[in-house]
Write a structure and sequence with these properties.
The chain has about 300 residues and is an alpha/beta fold. It is about 40% helix and about 15% strand. It starts with a helix and ends in an 8-residue tail after the last helix. It holds the Pfam family Abhydrolase_3.
Length: about 300
């Protein structure tokens, strides 16, 4: 049974996320509200715990966060935030970035990639790919791990598939958290989860957001439907999912397909838990993050076996 805190968050998500997804008009109004709020800046609390530098890549801001002490850096993380390819980095993301940087002794690189509807998915990849390639090619003696939640999980897989197809260096390990792996949304299981279980995402909301970020791409394109992309040969993956997440049925199919293609995949399925629960301040998330950190420190093969 989910913790009381998870149950509380479930109700908060229903009240805050479901209403704006009902119509295109309410969705666009919420986008404008979020743009004015500008949530992407790290708070004073975050800055007290991390040393944050800022650079630019492809005309976009990129944050680099490290522990606020003199200890050694033991890993490099590219963290790509979620938000339906539309919404910006949030305080929830920053809290998770603090955990990653401090628990893993990592330099966490966080790009503010261009967002829809002002920009389309191809433009997002155009900004992110050089940054990914640069980090994957760097030889500084530390491992490179690519992570992301929701849309960021899609980029985690899609960028690595592009590197694999091009014969370029890839991240040593991947952590796609509640990723969207099928933009067609044709799996009938989605209707059961979306209508009966998911407190955060709705089929209508996903359909609206898809019209805003796809541009000229077809929904089955591997840039969004990564289950159609190259899977054999991907690096080891840790994939946190939840039973009450609209995107989970397709993500579970991806996990099974990856295993069938010889990939090293560890997946956890949070019973009664919602979309991206893994980065929420929950007891379930704390335990699952501990599993992730142990997994990242364990020896693994460098690619699909």
């Amino acid at each position: 049974m989910p913790s009381w805190k998870a149950i509380l968050f479930r109700h908060l998500l229903i009240w805050t996320y479901k209403p704006f997804q009902r119509t295109p008009a309410s969705f666009h109004a919420h986008i404008q509200k979020e743009r004015k709020a500008n949530p992407c800046e790290p708070s004073d609390k975050v800055r007290a715990q991390l040393t944050i530098e800022e650079t630019e890549s492809g005309g976009c801001r990129v944050f680099h966060a490290t522990p606020n002490d003199d200890g050694p850096i033991e890993a490099r993380v590219l963290y790509i935030h979620g938000g339906s390819f539309i919404f910006d980095l949030s305080p929830l993301h920053w809290d998770f970035i603090v955990i990653l940087a401090t628990k893993l002794r990592a330099r966490v690189t966080v790009p503010l990639y261009p967002l829809a509807p002002e920009h389309k998915l191809v433009a997002m990849y155009d900004m992110l790919e050089p940054l990914y390639d640069e980090m994957a090619a760097a030889k500084d003696g530390t491992p490179f791990w690519c992570m992301g939640d929701s849309a960021g999980g899609t980029f985690t897989l899609g960028l690595t598939q592009r590197a694999l197809d091009a014969g370029k260096p890839m991240a040593d390990r991947l952590v796609p958290i509640s990723p969207c792996v099928d933009g067609t949304m044709m799996n009938p299981d989605l209707f059961v989860v979306g209508i009966e279980k998911d407190p955060m995402l709705s089929l209508t909301g996903v359909a609206i957001s898809r019209t805003l970020f796809l541009g000229d791409l077809k929904p089955e394109d591997p840039l969004i439907t990564t289950i159609n992309g190259t899977i054999k040969g991907l690096p080891p993956m840790f994939v946190p999912l939840g039973t009450d997440d609209l995107l989970s049925p397709d993500a579970q199919l991806f996990v099974q397909k990856a295993k069938d293609n010889g990939c090293d995949v560890t997946s956890i399925l949070g019973e009664g838990l919602f979309h991206v629960w893994f980065i929420f301040p929950l007891s379930e998330a704390t335990e699952a993050q501990r599993q992730l950190f142990d997994w990242l420190r364990s020896p693994r093969p460098s690619g699909g076996q």
